[in-house]
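S., here's the first fold you wanted:
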Amino acid sequence: MEALEQMYNYSWNGEMKSYLDQVDLSGYQHVWIGRFGGSIAHGAYKNENACLILTGADWELAVVMGAQHTVESAAFIADSLILRQRKITETLDEDVSSAIKKIDSFLMSMFNSVRFRSTAAKVNGNASCLIAVRKAGYLYWLSIGENSLYHLVPSPNHYNSVQLNQQNSSGKIGADNTFDQVVPVFNMGSVPLSSGTNHILLSTIGLQCFPVSPYKSASRLQRAFSKSESMPHFMQTTLTNAQSAGAAESITLVGWEIHI
């Protein structure tokens, strides 16, 4: 496992390093990033995924993106958020009662702005984008496209609200931008976290797509997680299973454990 440099934010996309035929699990502070670029023997030749992590005293903001055609649309989203890092930090450092409302308003304002949409129209391709924010004892998400957000618990008999977001293949950000449509396609929400240890996992759709994937449903993923020792152990196991199965599609995971 590679320890990432202790920096304030971390951003990666598949053009920087593809991880083809390679499983990587890296830790950034208390957040883990898992990557598998796909099996070359089964058709993988590039990695169009990306992720972004920002952290504060009592919050994390994590983003996973899965692009099509090129990684350009995912990199554009990450760059747009990094440019606004100071505002994001100021917002999430506020009291939780205002921070969640304000981060939702901030993201909607960014994605709907004329400047963002006009620039997005010029990129090559489109990306699914899942943004999750943990602030104090609450978890907020904005989901555009096909990525997944899971709230995992270490009990094999507890399957309620395991996958929090809804996936929708018709919503994307990029040249074909959902926010340019009459009715944009996305979903958002917020939930209180449980007392004790909470396990949060973001995943690109590749985790559900490889041959005989044991993670096609949230309940099956929960059962697999219940057998793991920790979040990083589970992430390592899932990616190793994908590699052994010859997954052709890239998989990117971001996960962490937080005690409330």
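And the second, which I think is the more interesting of the pair:
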Amino acid sequence: MPGRRRGTLSRVPPLNLGNQPKTPLDAEQAWRATAARARETVLFFDFDGTLAPVDDDPTAVSPAPKVLAALEALAPVVRRVAIVSARPVEFLREHLGGLAGIDLYGLYGLEHSHSGGETVTEPAALPWVPTMSELAEQARAELPAGTLVEFKRLSVALHWRTAPRLGAQVERWGREQAERLGLKCQAGRMVLEIKPPVDRDKGMVIDEVVRDAGGAWYFGDDVSDIKAFAALRARAAGDPRFVGVCVAVANPETGHEVAEAADLTIDSPAALGDFLTEALPHLR
């Protein structure tokens, strides 16, 4: 967003969910409120577009500068730090450099690993692995050159970032196949994700984790993160003492929609690294 300093946040209207409470705080006030209950607070982060810049090659991404050091420093200060992503847990583990004390929720919560422990897969999703493998092969055979097919064992992502002109064609093909096979679709930033028909999303993950928490922040950049924002709003509606803060990371594709649903916006993954580093003294 031109004209805004790196690392600074601005106030935007929060998601309107009827009578649910909003968070009338600027960034400094939000961190001060969090500091009073840091040991009860969970910090949630999406990965792509939030902790790491989006890349033309989704296998080539890496966290922005200062992000890994900030997460490592935050983990012992708050109740939990959790990454909630469309990526598989193994991918997250590799790209986070083996950080200790971080919980990983992959594939929208179909997989999870707590503090470096074993990866646990949602049992209802496992029978769909062969279907996903066959769908990936079919996509590679039928979709035009320029489409990147990412097979994630429990899902298939169809990317058209390097060939934007293919977007409508790729999305139409993906939705037709999902309907034929009884699968679900999740739209994203120049990508369509095809998933098993298992009732699992980021909002459900957040809802489960924050039930007995005193506060939570969620940092995200894409439309799937709005469900996570809504889960924090719902938790705050049931407990006025709960401090929930929704932060959007700006981007030129879905940034406006996500920012409108958030309490605060931040410029980029690099700015997020700066912001988290600057926030540490507040929590300590």
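Why I say that: The radius of gyration is 18 Å. Residues 167-181 form the longest helix (15 residues).

Talk tomorrow,
H.
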